[in-house]
Amino acid sequence: MIDFKKEISKLVSNQVESLSHGEVEELIEIPPNYNMGDYAMPCFKLAKAFRKSPNVIANEIVEDLKGNELFEKIENAGPYVNFFVNKEVFAQTVLEEIFTKKEKYGSQNIGQNQNVVIDYSAPNIAKPFHVGHLRSTVIGNSLYKIYEFLGYNSVGVNHLGDWGTQFGKMICAYKKWGNDEEIEKEPIKTLHYLYVKFHDEAEKKPELEDEGRLWFKKLEEGDEEAIKLWKWFADLSLREFNRIYDLLKVKFDHYTGESFYNDKMDRVVEMIKEKGILKESEGAYIVNLEKYDMPPCLIIKKDGTTIYATRDITAAIYRKDTFNFAKCLYLTDYSQNLHFAQWMKVIELMGFDWANQLEHAPFGRVSTEQGRLQTRKGNVILLDELLDKAIEKAGSLIEEKNPNLKDKEEVARKVGIGAVIYNDLSNNKIKDIVFNWDRMLSFDGETGPYVQYAHARANSVLEKAQFDISADVDYSLLTNEDTVEVIRLLEGFPQVVVAAMEKNEPSLITRHITDLAQAFNKFYHECPILVDEEELKKARLLLVFAVKNTIKVGLGLLGIEAPEKM
Ligand code: ARG
Description:
The protein is α/β, with parallel strands linked by helices. It contains 21 helices and 13 strands. It folds into 3 domains: 4-85, 2-Layer Sandwich (Gyrase A, domain 2); 115-377, Rossmann fold (3-Layer(aba) Sandwich); 383-558, Isoleucyl-tRNA Synthetase, Domain 1 (Orthogonal Bundle), CATH 1.10.730.
């Protein structure tokens, strides 16, 4: 595909010997609107070297570049040289590229097979999988695909919250009030209920807390009964989590939860001690981070047990040893910013030069119109209920709009789940989001169904045409404004994918394919496709094919399926 920016740099740097390609490329801008050209090059920087005014230089460059066939017009506007790409060449280079690369359009080998570990989802055993975990799951899954698409080898890790004091409390609560039958029937709900009850009771009887702590200590020491119960809770919980992962079509390469590091922590604590940074403080062991304006990182509690941070430090070292990652990414909401900053600092203080390859990518919190979601108090939206509801709502929409659709149930799943995922990935991830069913599932506006529908519409045009798509078309027929707008968005897609990776921000892709879907709908209404003129039809069908292909690739990178019909 012709890279017009590079072409401009080549042209200009041939004219202006004192500047290299790279230097010129950095100067090139995209004008605020297309009346001012597709690219612009400001000449202020050149003024000094040439001892001429930028306006004069711009004028001279324009004169020198006259007659270049990549551009239909090169003109100067004051100190700027504005470049208008030749729309026919533009259409041809973009559409040929998409036609050749198809579902690989936008992929590159930037990563050269380096490993990127992505730590996402990580719900807590015996606790509800809430909308916050959903965000982590959905963002992590998308980044997984984006990194792979760009030539990295993604390693997906589910760092399940399956260890910690809460399991001591849980065991304690189970022994007091638990009922096996109820637990088997509705594991997470029941276990969560027990946990909430434990906290309520402990407010009246604080000695319960000690009992809970004792059970966790037993667990850490490998007590048979404690382990057996813990394992049972974990298995039951995973069964429920897997149902959610199946609905979302999310997979992990490793389910290495916090408990996986039990036998690996001693060595790590020893290493911290050897570095001379482990300090005793009121019976506990900490790493002092005062110098870095942070509270100390607790490593070992007074009762000798480890904590969340100890396990994260151990896990990071294990992952570096095992996967030799180029990057290890963590997806949680921003309420954990301090936790990650603290333990990552400890890794740095331990002298690991790869500390800067650890990256916490925080995201905003999710609320409903009723307010924030909380686990303790029990007022949570349970995620599987939420997903079921989305599918059900999508189902009734389909029933209303297209009752004769084949595979209605499967499409309802794709649309309902797609709407939920899109909602999570539609804004800059650090922003808080509010759940709103009607908005999410609407077919208009910035929603998953809207984009999926544009894809299905493109597909149905292609099906109706019964035509062998070819890239051998008359590209001069693809130069009107509505068409060019679509092609611009197609052309921009690969860069957006790279930006999404660099910023760990899938929403850039969401926004881009939403713009593409909108531009395509405009094109669809303004430019009849299945016309009698063979050449025009052929050219427009190629464009429709390119749109369908690119939306599908984009949705795929978000983890959203694209039904052929809706
Ligand atoms: N289980 C934690 C939670 O629910 C998230 C774990 C994130 N990953 C990590 N390595 N700390 O908040």
